From TrEMBL:
<dbReference type="InterPro" id="IPR019371">
    <property type="entry name" value="KxDL_dom"/>
</dbReference>
<feature type="domain" description="KxDL">
    <location>
        <begin position="21"/>
        <end position="105"/>
    </location>
</feature>
<dbReference type="GO" id="GO:0099078">
    <property type="term" value="C:BORC complex"/>
</dbReference>
<dbReference type="GO" id="GO:0042803">
    <property type="term" value="F:protein homodimerization activity"/>
</dbReference>
<dbReference type="GO" id="GO:0005737">
    <property type="term" value="C:cytoplasm"/>
</dbReference>
<dbReference type="Pfam" id="PF10241">
    <property type="entry name" value="KxDL"/>
</dbReference>
<protein>
    <recommendedName>
        <fullName>KxDL domain-containing protein</fullName>
    </recommendedName>
</protein>
<dbReference type="GO" id="GO:0032418">
    <property type="term" value="P:lysosome localization"/>
</dbReference>
<dbReference type="GO" id="GO:0005634">
    <property type="term" value="C:nucleus"/>
</dbReference>
<comment type="similarity">
    <text>Belongs to the KXD1 family.</text>
</comment>
<dbReference type="InterPro" id="IPR039843">
    <property type="entry name" value="KXD1-like"/>
</dbReference>
Amino acid sequence: MSSENESESRKLSSEEISREFKTLVSSNDLHSLNHMQHTILGRLQDSNAVLSHFNDFSQHCFAEISGDIARNTRVLKCVKSDLDYIFQKLRSMKSKIMATYPDAFPEDSMGEGIDRRPDLEMPK
């Protein structure tokens, strides 16, 4: 019997605590908070839909141009290689001319200048 009384006592106590908690926050505030949460949920779902659409569009566009990008990258690497070879030959010709004709170039033109061209190679 004491366990029934104890159980009844706990039930009454929890109901009393529940009533007390309900008085701490007004129902208008709870309703307002619930409404704001639903509004935010709707906005987040809309944003998610827009972002998903944008991702699909971006993926489609990238698929269309990825071949062109790869081809242009190969062309640029080839052009860089060709230009490096040309500059190497020019430096070689200039040093041969300087060896044969020391007065052919002004003094400051033979100084090894700093190569300020950016390195376009991808890190490996």
